Amino acid sequence: MTENYENYAYMQHVFQETRILKKPTYGIVSGYxxxxxxxxxxxxxxPDRTLEIRGQIxxxxxxxxxxxxxxxxxxxxxxxxxxxxxxxxxxxxxxAFRGKPVNFESEYIKVNEKEVRTEQLIESVLDELERKxxxxxxxxxxxxxxxxxxxxxxxxxxxxxxxxGL
Length: 166
Prior knowledge:
Helix content: 25-40%
Number of strands: 6
Largest sheet: 6 strands, mixed
Low-confidence stretches: 63-69, 87-98
Order of helices and strands: HEEEHEEHEH
Shape: globular
Strand content: 15-25%
Mean pLDDT: 76
Structural class: alpha+beta
């Protein structure tokens, strides 16, 4: 029980310490579209390296999930008819091995370990997006890349809260 509470407390810490450095400049709640993001965080084994995760979130008009409701069940939020009994949950994680660069790519996510300090890469990514006049890509800094989904949740929650006035 204590271990679960410590894990929950640490997840709260990651959520609260996540910095949203750039948000999209137009609405994301209505309509079907993709929300791209760049998430950056210090490599776990080499503080002189940064893990860069570039991905996109598929958004649909019915999709609204806010972290202020930790006790609510999926079934209560979306209705029993929308629950697939065989699907309990999905967890995504990426392991980095000491001394070996990390590269992972799929249609929706790319993970790369860069040989540059985090603050330098943050500045570089923000400059890149500004040069491209990119108004839709978010930039997020996570305090712990092992729990990057928590930081992505923080990013989404900040946008949804702002858009819906929560």
